[in-house]
Amino acid sequence: DFHTHPVICKNQNRCALEVPSAFDIAYLFDNQAFGINRFHFVFTRMGTYRIRLLHRARKAAQLAAQSNPAFRTQVRVRLLRMFGKRYVAFSKVYPKPGLTLKSFRATWCALMREVGFEVKLFVHPQQPYLPLRARL
Fold first, then answer.
1. Is a pLDDT exceeding 70 seen at residue 8?
2. H-type helices in the chain, by residue range?
3. Side-chain half-sphere of 85: how many Cα atoms within 13 Å?
4. Taking a C-beta distance cutoff of 8 angstroms, is the pair 79, 115 a contact?
5. Are 29 and 52 in contact (CB under 8 A)?
6. Once rounded to an integer, what is the mean pLDDT over residues 35-61?
């Protein structure tokens, strides 16, 4: 599965449009935990993100959903809030010295790991690929 983020930021160091949004993350979680998709690519002007929900996170989500019918909705709301706050905070203070896309991306990647995602950014001209031994 894939989608694109074709918008060009005026200043790549001070624009978060390139990083997958809160809505993207909520969709990916639901799709990868309960659907058939195991990898998602986001093609941007700076590079390509390869994103996958780790096997243990997928299994934990499936078990939680069996015992709690509201689990999927609760997780979606939580992810929208968590990642949405990051974007809003970045947008409010982006002229602040030292706050760059690179630093935003680092905190975004750390948060992705916390919720069970593996993220790999292939910076242009590097070509994206699937791992040879990915546990599906």
1. no
2. 22-34, 55-67, 71-93, 101-114
3. 7
4. yes
5. no
6. 92
